[in-house]
């Protein structure tokens, strides 16, 4: 993709964090923006920020990205408003339950997979016919560094982000002979409000230190350069390198050393450590 100017860009999870940062940066490129989020208030604030500036072509809808019918209707409405999309950024996501496997509610796996994985699948499939009709187009699916390694108390979240990774890597091959670029993003520790639970705050202070604007700017440059995989953010490159150089056993030891000080150990002392 040579330029974003005049392009229609779809961003899910646009109410805050990376989604809002993407919207603000693409607005500076004179793009038409189609935004969605479950958080209607936050989404309205994003739209207000954009329209108070120089961006006047903004379309938004508040709905749950795990609602397949709502996603497909959104795609139809975007086409009616702006024509076919050029760039789709499947960014929306939620945190997990912050519990080990034996203490994790079944409902958490279902909900996290519904939003973090199904939402990406629906967003991709709903807009892909539009992208295929364009002369140049791009899909950006957001995984995580937790889509590179499994970490304690995050099995629900990791499962969803590994699923995004597998889905997107398959899509890369399937669309390799087309003009549609496919990008897989593995954010490291990005300072967003995805970690809202009280038990996540120690983790947030230690790891979530990279500004959303920084990774979004990096990804936009990566789209222009057509980089298939992008790893960026606190501990991002270190984690990726570890998966390449360390044995599984040594990686497990390193992850436990890094993560155990910031996770709730109650369930471990009850079931594993016998205290």
Q: Would you spell out the secondary-structure blueprint of this structure?
A:
Blueprint: E1 8-12, H1 17-27, E2 32-37, H2 40-51, E3 58-62, H3 68-82, E4 87-90, H4 106-132, E5 137-142, H5 155-174, E6 180-187, H6 201-207, H7 212-225, E7 229-232, H8 236-245, H9 248-259, H10 266-271
Parallel strand pairs: 1-2, 1-4, 2-3, 4-5, 5-6, 6-7
Helix pairs in contact: 1-2, 1-7, 3-4, 4-5
Give an account of the 3D structure.
With 275 residues, this protein is α/β, with parallel strands linked by helices. It has one domain: Rossmann fold (3-Layer(aba) Sandwich). The protein contains 10 helices and 7 strands. It has a 7-stranded parallel sheet, sandwiched between helices. Strand 4, helix 4 and strand 5 form a beta-alpha-beta unit. Helix 1 packs parallel to helix 2, helix 1 crosses helix 7 and helix 3 runs parallel beside helix 4. It is globular and about 55 Å long. The mean pLDDT is 91.
